[in-house]
Structures are given as C-alpha cells and as structure tokens.
Write a structure and sequence with these properties.
Elements (H helix, E strand, L loop, with lengths): L5 H4 L28 E4 L1 E3 L17 E4 L4 E5 L8 E7 L7 E7 L7 E8 L6 E6 L4 H7 L1 E5 L5 E4 L14 E5 L6 H8 L10 H17 L2 H14 E2 L2 E2 L21 H8 L5 H12 L11 E3 L1 H16 L3 H13 L4 E2 L2 E7 L4 E5 L2 H18 L6 H15 L20 H16 L8 H11 L12 E2 L5 H6 L3 E2 L2 H12 L3
Antiparallel strand pairs: 1-11, 2-4, 3-10, 4-9, 5-8, 5-11, 6-7, 6-9, 12-13, 14-16, 15-16, 16-17, 18-19
Length: 499
C-alpha cells in the first residue's frame, strides 16, 4: 500500500535530509568484528491464519497469524557465539487479552529457550526474549520454533515492507556485546521510522517528542522523522489508520485520546483540512460545562490529548477563543489534583476517583498542564492554573523514589514505570524553564534522567514501561512491564528540555 505522499503536500521547514543507519547486517558480515548492536533477520516458515475481512493491518504490512497450538519455524543465518542474544517479534494485531508463546529449538529434545508473555498490547510494539548464548550452536543448526499456548489468535509482523525500512518490526535476533544501550543509541533509534506507533495517543506522544528534539535541540533528523511518520498515515490529505481493534478509521476522530497527534500536524501543516474535523469532534465531545471528554468521567488524558493540541491549533490559527478554551480544559480537570494525590479519573456521577497516583496518569496531567501553559505563555497567563500545576508537581515529587523514578502506582511498592517517570520529569523541566516552578526542582528531573539511562536496550529502546491500560487495575498494580516507543516519546521530551 503506497502511503508516501505526505511530504509532497508539506512545505519545507528547515528540512535536512539524512540517512538512518540500517542495523541489519547482510549474512556475509555477521561473523565480522562489530562494535554495536546488530539485527539479524529471521525467515518465517509456516502457514498463517487469515485475519477477519473487516480488520486491517497497519500500513498494509504483512502479518503472520497463529491460532491456538499453531507453531512457526524461525531461521536465520549463522550467529556468532560471543554476544548477548535477544529474540524480537512485534505485534500486528491489537490485543485485549494475553498470548503465551513457547520458544524452543526443534532438536530431538526440544530444548526450551523460554516464554514470551504478551499482554493487552497495541500494534507496533516489540517484545523480546533473552536467549542464553550456550544455545547458539543448536539455533544455528535447527532454528527456533514458536508455539502459541493460549486460546486467542496472535498476529505479528512478518515480511519486510518493500517501501519502508521496517526491519525492527519483523522477527529478528538482536545481537550485542552489551546488555545496555546509550543515549546516542536512543536518539538514533527514536529519530527514525522505527519509533512509529499506532495512531492516537501513542503516536502523538512520539511526534511530540520528535518535535521538541527539533525545536529545542535543532535536530533536523527529528523533523525528517516526523514527516516520514506522517507519510505512513496519510495519502495526500487523507488520513488512513486503524483504531485499537484494527478497525479502519480513515479521516475520522476516534475519541479524545486520539487527538494529540494533531498538535504536531498543526505546526508543520496548519491549513490541513483534517484539523477542522478535529475541532468538530471536540465540539461533539463537549459537555454542557464545555469540558471535552468522552463521557461524564473527568480524565487526566484530556490535559495532554485535548488542552495541549487545542492550544497549539489556537495559536497557529491565531484563534483567541480556541486558546481560551484550551486553558478551560485544564480548569475542568483541577479536580484530579487533590489532597496530595494525582488521579487518572474522577467519576462525577459517583463523586469518586479511580487509578489514584498511577504514574502515567500523573504524567498526562502534569505534561498537559506544562505544555499548554508553555504554548500560551506569551499570550495568556493564568495564575490559578500555574498554582494548580505546581500543586500537582509537589504531589508527584513527594512520591519519587530514591532511585529517581516513580513506581507504576507512585505510592505503592510495585515496579517503576519509566514512561510515567519520564513524563513527570519532562513536565518539571518545562515548568522550571518557563518560570512556573522554582529552579531547585530541576534536581528531581535530573535524578530521573540519570536513572532512565539504565533501562535502554542495546539498540536504544526504552524498557520497563507500564503496559497499555487495557487489563484493568490488576495488570497495572503488578510488575508487568514492556518495551514501548511511546515511552521513548516521553523520554525524548525530557531530554529535549534539559539544559
């Protein structure tokens, strides 16, 4: 499916061309000396089930679908034995349940390599299994098999695209002399097509991180990546994407959480016709009091996915009413910051809260406040909103752990969430830079930045991200964590705002 038309409709904005290094080495060079991580592609051997006719795979990329008890053989060229080895596959079908994949060598004894446990995942998210290097000789001889043990179909991306270098999403081995990546690895990966996510809040977070790398750090690669990402979602001026159940949603708005990408779109294409559709959608979602929400529940996401893009569009259109309306969205959400807490949701019909002190919810609130206030600083100042923002930041700081991160639920003893931590810290740095917070608050964000660097994969992806909020409280209160480019978008915003 040809999508690469968006660049033709956008005027150059200081666009600098560059080439992203391809980490996948040809078979003849795998055995050579190498200094960094490489990806070794895997051939997929086996039959694939079909997807329902009313569903669609992102960008027309090729999926392989396993039904329960199906097996597939994965084979590569010869692997070296002196490396850390990780098996990677990426989700192609949206998931609202769990897939357990058994990974083994199809030798006589069916040598077990481990289990891939994939829960409630969006598409375009990679999952990895570390493989003991002692098994390399067997893998070189037999390949590996993957068997689906659970009761629902599971789909992963299969063949490389003929139009886009998407080899990070197709099955591969990641080989590296080190278990950890560096900040340059992170930036190299992030400022490329490899950081693309499902359209909506996930991709919007990535685009926002890329924009800040460009606007604050002068990274021309980031601007190029933005336009390459939009190439995947637009055919000319027509938006083509799927929702969280693989249903086509072309030229439609899919709830308030889906409107964050339009902040970045408005910056580089302020006259794009889809922006009028966004405004119409916000109007249709507006409650009697003017709050834009999907229902009676007051949500933290709306601070970042509604107020902030509304401010950006209002600014580029020079629309005073839209800018004022953006600030009002924050005031409607004051109720989320209360009594030392940061809440994801306030159920106005019941007068109750849920997801109290969930780290990524705190990030949505604080980042939405910080980005909206920053966007409109030169035009509208509202001391009441600034004071509420500082109150929220103070609440978060009180729950920061000694290691510099925030746990998935900030006031509980569960695993840290790198995405929420990065988002909270980015909001703090924006607040300091704009004069909304004391300069002493910088130390809390810097402590987080130092800690986050311990959670990078050898090729620069961010680990230990709380999974998409599809599995309810039970999943979020546990220690299940994933790799996610969405989390990298929040980390990029933190990086971009550092001095």
């Amino acid at each position: 499916m040809k999508r690469r038309k968006f660049l033709e409709t956008v005027p150059p904005v200081g666009l600098g061309l560059f080439v992203v290094p391809n980490l996948t080495l040809c078979s003849s060079s795998i055995q050579e000396k190498w200094n960094g991580a490489i990806r070794v592609p895997l051939s997929v051997i086996g039959s694939s089930a079909k997807i329902p006719s009313d569903k669609r795979i992102a960008f027309g990329w090729s999926p392989h679908v396993l039904n329960p008890d199906d097996e597939v053989l994965l084979k590569s060229k010869q692997l070296p034995r002196d490396a850390y080895v990780f098996l990677r596959i990426s989700v192609a079908l949206e998931m609202w349940d769990q897939a357990i994949l058994q990974v083994f060598v199809p030798d006589e004894g069916e040598t077990q390599l481990g289990i891939l446990d994939i829960r409630h995942s969006s598409v375009l998210v990679p999952y990895e299994l570390k493989i003991d290097s002692k098994h390399i000789s067997l893998i070189n001889k037999y390949g590996i098999k993957v068997k689906l043990l659970t009761s629902k179909p599971f789909g992963f991306f299969n063949q490389p695209s003929t139009e886009v270098g998407n080899n990070v999403f197709t099955p591969h081995f990641l080989l590296s002399p080190s278990e950890k990546g560096t900040v340059p690895d992170f930036l190299n990966f992030f400022m490329s097509i490899d950081s693309v996510q499902a359209f909506g809040w996930r991709e919007g977070t990535v685009l926002d991180g890329l924009w800040q790398l460009y606007s604050l750090k002068g990274e021309e690669k980031a601007l190029t990546a933005i336009k390459e990402h939009f190439d995947l979602f637009f055919e000319g001026e027509n938006l083509k994407y799927e929702n969280s159940r693989n249903d086509p949603r072309d030229n439609k708005i899919d709830g308030i959480e889906s409107t964050i990408p339009y902040a970045t779109l408005a910056r580089i294409h302020p006259d794009h016709p889809i922006l009028k559709t966004v405004i119409e959608a916000w109007d249709s979602y507006a409650q009697e009091n003017g709050m834009v929400t999907d229902g009676p529940t007051v949500t933290a996401e709306g601070c970042y996915t509604v107020a902030y893009p509304m401010a950006v569009i209002g600014k580029v259109w020079n629309d005073p009413a839209l800018k004022k309306r953006a600030l009002e969205q924050l005031k409607h959400r004051f109720v989320l910051i209360e009594n030392g807490n940061l809440n994801l949701r306030y159920h106005s019909d019941k007068g109750s809260y849920s997801y109290k002190n969930w780290a990524r919810g705190a990030a949505w609130t604080l980042l939405g406040f910080a980005r909206t206030l920053s966007e409109l600083k030169g035009e509208i100042q509202d001391r009441e909103i600034i004071n509420k923002f500082k109150e929220g930041v103070d609440n978060a700081i009180s729950m920061q752990k000694e290691n510099g991160l925030w746990n998935g639920f900030m006031d509980a003893e569960n695993a840290p969430d790198t995405s929420g931590s990065a988002g909270i810290s980015a909001a703090i740095l924006i607040g300091v830079k704009e004069g909304f917070l004391p300069t002493t608050y910088r130390q809390y964000a810097e402590k987080c930045w130092t800690a986050l660097q311990n959670y990078l994969t050898p090729d620069g992806l961010l680990k230990e991200v709380s999974q998409d909020n599809r599995g309810g409280l039970q999943l979020q209160q546990g220690n299940y964590r994933v790799i996610a480019q969405m989390g990298m978008g929040l980390m990029a915003q933190l990086y971009a705002n550092r001095e």
